[in-house]
Specification:
The protein contains 28 helices and 10 strands. It is α+β, with helices and mostly antiparallel strands.
């Protein structure tokens, strides 16, 4: 009677299996339209919290325009020829008509200033040359007098030129993509003999980045899915064992992406990893369930087999899901919105995967596959048994080796580098990276570290003594390591100074501020792009642009602080210097990665330890599971400097993701050991448990490793680095669970016996 009472709910559960399956199918079918409409956001906005720095950047854009650019480099030609300059003039005229473009700048838009009588007027520098009134040598000589304005558009040899197209702020990704496509089409329709074209800029960077992500996404999901199914076939020996995990995977991914669409969370550089990660992780519980079915063999009735399976695995599967979710949700303390979104949706996907796993189990319960053990299972059980025997026999040696590895990992942590340069995320042979590096080598002006200089004192920007102080300050900045050149209001004023004096060079110790003030006061900023770039309409804000030779994040932050601290005493308190621009925002965001990473790992470990301690009612069990897997995590994170893997927006999530994932094996072993220790001796119980858990542990590790290995084929370096780290952590965790965990079980067993 008692057995019938126990089986009664499982009989009902089995009888409504098709209703449950159809319900899951209906939910997934209803989610497909939303999942298919998941938007993509290629911008960097998902990386930034709305902090003071972000608001400062918005203020900077409102004053000086957008900083989203398309840079067209033109090389392998003599720039100062009439055909080339006519071509640049046509480009400026055509592109200025596009509604998405704010400004177009190249050699044919740069204006100089000259004194005519007692007045100063501006003119297009190359206009006289195009009209045939001067030679190329005369034009070159004139350009040298305006080198402050020409440097971003032509190199010193005169064989490379560039056009900078600034897009209007607030454009959507589709509009930016349209501009880039239209630009490429314009270059095809307007060929320039023997010229080579290079396309770069922040807009092209973002568009290229998202194109690589979409390409990888379309590659990873089907390839990972197919590879995982083949591994399942190898381990379980029958194609029917592929149906159950395939159904769970599809249902989980569709549900997760539908939620992302409903919550208006577009796929970005970080959340693009959600689908591949969920695809890999959602299969873990399925493997343990199918391995249990294979292990126990045929049962006389399916409802009895269902009851045995749930009794053995429901609680440990629930616990492993909760610990994995804890690892993902710990990322939500990050100050980077994209990482928070990744943590939330990955955690949700892990939880929903467990729901689909148990709801679909009665339908895909493979009762007719009745072999109690497959040859593969016996092989892995034998391997695990041998490793367990070595572990218990040479426990001191293994503990010593574990301590050495942990020490090495802790030592390596001190050398971890932070790097969030998007250009570095592209592979060395990527066309966009090569184009950008070519422009950078020729002009050294791709990475601007921007500052907004503000004053409440009216007219102070035109005070002669302050201008002289800024001249000295600008020269000081140009001497800093990694700085290519600096552009500021003083560059404009120096040119104006030479014009009003009627000389090629002015006296730095005497600036006629009367002429400058009169000239600037009567100038229409909208008609003068050189001045508009560096001065606001109310003359209270100016722009300081420090162009860098590289965008290394640590160098950017150090340089920004150094520039602010180097401000002369006679300028402090009068002018406020505030960093701005995407280069600074990315660097500032990266400074929080280490702290956030360490906090996320600490929160995840604390939450998991608390769960396990309460669940097993044993401090020892919680500590054993955490310490064993912390060994693997410490070794791999500490190896990042040796593998030349930096801490970036992708690898920053490794710790929290891994600690929730790799602890699953320990939970299943501890749960099984706690059941067996009641009736068996310690060493016999350890051997039995390790042999029983061997196949799902090894099979799951193989599948997860293979899944992450697919991402090694990706187009983005952070994705590849994420995969390398995850593969390393999974392999190290498997070894730790096979070699170190049995030693911990002896301690747990003795404590149990003493109790």
């Amino acid at each position: 009677m008692e057995t019938r009472s126990i089986l009664r709910p499982w009989k009902f559960f089995y009888r409504i299996r098709w209703i449950l399956a159809l319900t899951v199918l209906a939910v997934v079918a209803a989610s497909i339209p939303s999942a298919s409409k998941l938007p993509v956001d290629p911008s960097n906005l998902a990386m930034f919290e709305r902090t003071q720095s972000f608001q400062d950047n918005e203020r900077f854009q409102s004053l000086f325009g957008g900083d989203d650019t398309v840079v067209i480099g033109v090389g392998n030609l003599e720039v100062l020829t009439r055909p080339v300059l006519n071509w640049l003039s046509t480009m400026a005229e055509d592109f200025a008509q596009w509604p998405e473009i704010e400004t177009v700048e190249n050699l044919m838009t740069v204006k100089g200033v000259a004194r005519k009588g007692w007045k100063v007027s501006d003119f297009v520098l190359a206009q006289a040359f195009l009209q045939g009134d001067e030679t190329a040598d005369e034009l070159r000589s004139k350009l040298e007098n305006f080198h402050e304005w020409i440097k971003p558009f032509m190199n010193e040899t005169g064989h490379f030129t560039a056009a900078v197209i600034t897009l209007k702020p607030g454009l959507k990704s589709a509009q930016r993509h349209y501009v880039i496509v239209k630009t490429r089409d314009w270059l095809k329709d307007h060929p320039l003999e023997n010229a080579s074209f290079y396309l770069s800029g922040t807009a092209v960077e973002q568009d290229s980045f998202i194109a690589r992500i979409e390409k990888d996404h379309h590659l990873f999901v089907p390839l990972t899915f197919g590879l995982m199914m083949l591994i399942i076939l190898f381990f379980f020996g029958h194609w029917l064992y592929m149906i159950y995990p395939a159904a769970v995977i599809v249902a989980t991914i569709v549900s997760t992406q539908a939620l992302m669409t409903c919550l208006n969370s577009p796929m970005n550089v970080i959340t693009s990893l959600v689908a591949p990660v969920i695809l890999i992780i959602s299969i873990s519980d399925v493997i343990h369930i199918q391995s249990h079915v294979r292990h126990v063999g045929r049962r006389p009735r399916p409802e009895r087999a269902l009851a045995v399976t749930f009794h053995a695995l429901a609680l440990p599967c629930l616990l492993t899901t909760l610990t994995t979710m804890a690892g993902f949700f710990s990322l939500m303390i990050s100050r980077v919105p994209a990482i928070r979104q990744f943590g939330f949706f990955s955690g949700f996907g892990t939880g929903i995967a467990l729901c689909w796993t148990f709801l679909l189990l009665p339908v895909f319960f493979l009762r007719h596959i009745h072999k109690s053990d497959a040859p593969q299972h016996q092989i892995w059980s034998t391997v695990a048994g041998q490793l367990t025997e070595w572990s218990l026999k040479y426990r001191r040696v293994i503990i010593l080796l574990a301590l050495i590895f942990v020490g090495g990992g802790l030592y390596g942590l001190s050398g971890t580098q932070i790097h969030t340069d998007i250009l570095g995320a592209f592979k060395p042979d990527d066309p966009f990276r090569q184009d950008t590096q070519t422009i950078q080598r020729q002009l050294e002006g791709i990475y601007p570290l921007e500052f907004r200089v503000h004053t409440e004192t009216e007219g102070s920007f035109l005070d002669a003594s302050k201008i002289l102080a800024w001249n000295r300050f600008e020269k000081l900045i140009e001497g800093f390591e990694g700085v290519s050149y600096v552009r500021y209001l003083t560059d404009v004023l120096n040119v104006l100074d030479r014009a009003v004096r009627g000389k090629d060079e002015g006296d730095e110790n005497e600036i006629p501020d009367f002429y400058l003030e009169k000239y600037i006061a009567g100038m229409d900023l909208k008609e003068n792009p050189e001045l508009k770039r560096v001065m606001s309409a109310d003359l209270r804000d100016t722009r300081l642009s420090v162009f860098l030779k590289s965008s290394d994040t640590r160098h950017v932050m150090e340089l920004a602080a150094k520039i602010q601290n180097a401000l002369p005493d006679d300028l402090k308190g009068i002018w406020q210097v505030t960093p701005a621009g995407q280069t600074y925002l990315l660097a500032s965001m990266s400074q929080n990665l280490v702290k956030n990473e360490l906090w996320s790992i600490a929160v995840a470990m604390a939450a998991i330890w608390l769960m396990l301690t309460v669940w097993f009612r044993s401090l020892t069990a919680g500590l054993i599971s955490i310490l064993v897997n912390a060994l693997a995590l410490t070794v791999m994170i500490g190896s990042m400097p040796f593998l030349r893997i930096p801490l970036n927006t992708a690898t920053a999530t490794i710790g929290s993701v891994a600690v929730g994932l790799i602890v699953d094996h320990s939970i299943h072993v501890l749960y099984r050991f706690k059941q067996n220790i009641k009736t068996q001796k310690i060493e016999k119980s350890i051997a039995h448990v390790m042999a029983y858990c061997a196949q799902p542990m090894i099979c799951t590790t193989f599948i997860l490793t293979a899944g992450f290995a697919v991402t090694l084929l990706g187009s983005i370096e952070p994705t590849i680095q994420f995969a390398v780290m995850m593969i390393g952590v999974l392999i190290m965790a498997l070894l730790a669970n096979l070699l170190v965990l049995p030693i911990g079980l002896t301690v747990m067993g003795r404590n149990h016996n003493n109790e």
